[in-house]
Write a structure and sequence with these properties.
With 391 residues, the protein is of the alpha/beta class. It has 2 domains: 224 residues, Alpha-Beta Complex (Quinone Oxidoreductase, Chain A, domain 1), CATH 3.90.180.10; 161 residues, NAD(P)-binding Rossmann-like Domain (Rossmann fold). It has 13 helices and 17 strands. Strands 3, 4, 5, 8, 9, 16 and 17 form a 7-stranded mixed beta sheet that branches. It has a 6-stranded parallel beta sheet with strand order 12-11-10-13-14-15, with helices on both faces. Strand 1 and strand 2 form a beta hairpin. Helix 5 crosses helix 12. The chain is globular and about 60 Å long. The mean pLDDT is 93.
């Protein structure tokens, strides 16, 4: 089959690789009909997240048609059209039974779990098409994909619903929804969201559906700010204003009730802190550029909540722990518990309560995936979301 493979920093290409096969009795093989490039994929493209190997198959946002199922899989049948969560979870361990599939103890193979246990204290959960820290599973930017534990997680899509309407159930819609949920929004609250990329845009949509009275979105790309505004947000261009001062003025001196960092470890900007971060990471004296995380903590009101769906991978310098403690803040974060949200979010789509397609800017055949990565990285104003079509 054809699949997009990783070959080093800014070097991805479509190769011919072996077809996936059933390995365990709960597996399924999916013929991929649509997949997408995620902002998290760019961390691999930039070689910012460690643990990649030459030839690894990329991609964790995908859906398709079931081609084959293992003998112990009674939930799916050949011909089912499914969306696959990016989190691989067993459904039976302590964490899965406590509605924390993103903490699954069984999906990261034992021979790969040691590295993440050293880095994070406990092994990370498995994920498709990502670092070997998360199991080294082949991803879905391919013609076919093997889905472990496929009787727990993948959701069957009704007939007559287009791929594009449901594809983002694989990651960015549940991630935006959980980000808003973690912000502990009360009716009428003011929520400030840093980053109007795909996750940020879904966080805007989700915050409004969850009852926010005002959403203020922060970015500098004109098209992304236009999309944020079209989805009901007030917008701030951080090239034009001092963000914290603007938020203070917009909230009568109190600050937003909650702040969402939808940017993560590769934040950009022109603050002195971020310039220092960039210098440190460029010479490997630091890992994560935590400018946005610092700004959310400083901007949120006293007693407020900071929600962090943006990916962080290592250590953050100059964390404002004093402000965090003195202001009495709550910080909620984590990989998305995708499986928990799928039935309810699918119903929102079917009822027409959310548009999941307006952020798609480009649709490309899989063979042009390298072009998609390059432009999604370098032309983020025009390339807001890329969908790849393997067949």
């Amino acid at each position: 089959m054809r699949a997009l493979t990783w070959h080093g920093k800014h070097n991805v290409k479509v190769d011919t690789v072996p077809d996936p096969k059933i390995v365990n009795p709960r597996d399924a093989i999916i013929k991929v009909t649509a997949t997408a490039i995620c902002g998290s994929d760019l961390h691999l493209y930039d070689s910012y997240i460690p643990g990649m190997s030459n030839g690894d198959i990329l991609g964790h946002e995908f859906m398709g048609v079931v081609e084959e199922v293992g003998k112990e899989n009674t939930s799916l049948k050949v011909g089912d059209r499914v969306v696959v969560p990016f989190v691989i979870a067993c459904g039976k361990c302590f964490f899965c039974e406590h509605q924390l599939p993103s903490g699954c103890d069984n999906s990261n193979p034992a021979e790969k779990a040691d590295a993440s246990e050293i880095a994070y204290g406990y092994p990370m959960t498995g994920a498709f098409g990502y670092s070997h820290l998360t199991g080294g599973y082949a991803g879905g930017q391919a013609e076919y994909a093997r889905v472990p534990y496929s009787d727990y997680g993948p959701i069957v899509i009704p007939e007559g619903v287009s791929d594009e309407r449901v594809l983002f159930l694989s990651d960015i819609f549940p991630t935006g929804w959980q980000a808003a949920e973690n912000a502990q929004i009360k009716p009428g609250d003011t929520v400030a969201i840093w980053g109007c990329g795909p996750v940020g845009l879904f966080a805007i949509k989700s915050a409004i559906l969850q009852g926010a009275g005002r959403v203020i979105a922060i970015d500098h790309h004109p098209r992304r700010l236009e999309l944020a505004k079209a989805n009901g947000a007030e917008v701030l261009n951080y090239h034009e204003v001092k963000v914290r001062e603007a938020l203070t003025e917009m909230t009568a001196g109190i600050g937003p009730d909650s702040c969402i960092d939808a940017v993560g470890l590769e934040s950009h900007g022109f603050s002195p802190d971020n310039i220092v971060d960039a210098i440190k990471t460029s010479v490997r004296l630091g890992t994560d550029r935590a400018h946005v995380l610092r700004e959310t903590i400083m901007a949120v009101r006293k007693g407020g909540t900071v929600s962090v769906p943006g990916v962080y991978g290592g250590f953050a310098d100059k964390f404002p722990v004093g402000a965090f403690m003195e202001k009495g803040l709550t910080l909620k974060t984590g990989q998305t518990n995708v499986q928990n949200y799928l039935p309810d979010l699918l119903q929102l789509i079917l009822e027409g309560k959310i548009d999941t397609t307006d952020l798609i800017s480009h649709r490309l055949p899989l063979e042009q995936a390298a072009e998609g990565y390059k432009n999604f990285k370098e032309n983020q104003n025009e390339w807001t979301k890329v969908v790849l079509l393997p067949h």
